[in-house]
Amino acid sequence: MRGAVSTFCPLTRLCAGVHKRLQCRGSSTRCVESFGIGPAPHAEGVRAPVSTAPAPRREIPDATVARLPVYLRVLRTLLADGVDVVSSEELAEAAGVRSAGLRRDLSYLGSYGVRGVGYDVARLADEIARELGLTQDRFVAIVGMGNLGHALAAYSGFATRGFEVRWLVDNDPAIVGTQIAERCVVALEELTRQDPDGLIVVIATPPAQAQDVADAVVAMGVRSILNFAPCVLTVPDGVEVRKVDLATELQILAFHEQRGRDDLREVNP
Ligand SMILES: NC(=O)c1ccc[n+]([C@@H]2O[C@H](COP(=O)([O-])OP(=O)(O)OC[C@H]3O[C@@H](n4cnc5c(N)ncnc54)[C@H](O)[C@@H]3O)[C@@H](O)[C@H]2O)c1
């Protein structure tokens, strides 16, 4: 059935070639939805598959997920500048990626743009935000209000990307109750009494305390942790931990720089 619709789909004609570019997988409904052009009449004798079942979730590679926030940032800047449509080349250049890679990334979302026209900026931004789970309110709790915690609390970039820093947490009685970045620091016990829905916990404690903090917030129902402490956290299935380690990034840069120098020496001994 899917093959039959793919072969005879009248949208090839109606979309003036766009449908081919979509590499139709047999669903003209999907084509209509992808381009927001409204339902199309179907050729005689050809029936579009009608399904009310939700489309199966497509696996998205981690590398693509990592680039989606970059695309979203660029798209929101374009929106703020009043740009309605952007070509894949323009979007790719602004995001610092190749346009073929960008098109492949966006194809995982079912976004193929319109040939010769480009992507609808607002629509694509919405799609990416939805895919990233940013249509739900997200709150951040920073645990550990030392040097790093202070810097993170003062960082305005969370709010501009839709993350409200709601809780600043420490276990030092000298710090609990003080104001940092116009917020009152609370004890960890206070945080664990809160609703975990939409909460992401940032751990900025010394490594020796990070597992205890992770255990406490997992027990309250938190499912997302961003860990700055240089240690491996053990968490149950269903809890996602991302690790940030600037020193590791520097080591990777050092590795590539050394490789580059070695390559040059091989060319010009
Ligand atoms: N990933 C990175 O790139 C990166 C960069 C800088 C620092 N770090 C790491 O971030 C962490 C914090 O660094 P820092 O310089 O801010 O340290 P810091 O000593 O200045 O601050 C740590 C804070 O954590 C609090 N704390 C300790 N145990 C706690 C607990 N159980 N509950 C709540 N609060 C607790 C302390 O009271 C203190 O205020 C360290 O693990 C450090 O190695 C990582």
From TrEMBL:
Entry's localization field: Cytoplasm
Superkingdom field: Bacteria
Gene3D superfamilies according to UniProt: NAD(P)-binding Rossmann-like Domain (3.40.50.720), Winged helix-like DNA-binding domain superfamily/Winged helix DNA-binding domain (1.10.10.10)
BP GO terms, sorted: negative regulation of DNA-templated transcription; response to redox state
DNA-binding region per UniProt: 70-109
One Gene Ontology cellular component annotation held by this UniProt entry: cytoplasm
Binding site for NAD(+): 144-149
Pfam short name (any one): Put_DNA-bind_N
Domain CoA-binding: from-to ranges: 133-232
Keywords annotated in UniProt: Cytoplasm, DNA-binding, NAD, Repressor, Transcription, Transcription regulation
GO molecular function, one term: DNA-binding transcription factor activity
Family: Belongs to the transcriptional regulatory Rex family.
PANTHER family per UniProt: REDOX-SENSING TRANSCRIPTIONAL REPRESSOR REX, REDOX-SENSING TRANSCRIPTIONAL REPRESSOR REX 1
Primary role: Modulates transcription in response to changes in cellular NADH/NAD(+) redox state.
Record's subunit section: Homodimer.
Protein's UniProt name: Redox-sensing transcriptional repressor Rex
Organism the protein comes from: Metallococcus carri
Gene that specifies this protein: rex
